[in-house]
Amino acid sequence: MMQARSIRTRRWSRREYETLVEGGFFGCHERLELIGGLLLVKEPQGDPHAVAVDLAAAALRGAFGKAWLVRAHAHVALGRHSRPEPDVYVVSGSPRDYREAAPTRPALVIEVAESRLRFDRGQKASLYARAGVPDYWIVNLVDRVLEVHREPARLEPPRRRCGYRSIQTLGPDASVSPLAAPAARIAVADLLP
Length: 193
Description:
The protein is an alpha+beta fold. The protein has helices at residues 14-22, 47-64, 117-130; strands at 32-35, 38-41, 68-72, 88-92, 108-113, 135-140, 145-154, 162-170, 175-176, 186-187.
């Protein structure tokens, strides 16, 4: 009788993945991101998702000003095994500052969530917390709220994973200030399609 073999998987490094991307291994229409060494297919975007991304990018550009770069659907380099493509993020500087290498320290990351809400609350939140992203927001299209995650830390046992100690849910009537731009106020309604 043959013994069943366990299925082996291989985790990719960020450097290996970037080599494949630069070499044209993936088709231009393949929407992938590297999370913890695994290649994940990004969710398809419906119209409300696309509108929320545009609204978030516009609101953040107004809140942060010219000393900051607001990017939509661009990758960040987080550690050796992750190269996520958040819906929107903010880093200091200008586009030419990142000509040679992707940003590694976003001040704020936003994910617009509908079908992958659980994933964005769990694995994505853990990834961003582990990378020290101080401000992580989820534009929750299911419940029409903004979830603000702050204070990245290693969480208590039994899970022993990274996450955020502070999670606040804000409705459409509320407003929020980014940690890196505390004088700015962004209405939650301005982020919802």
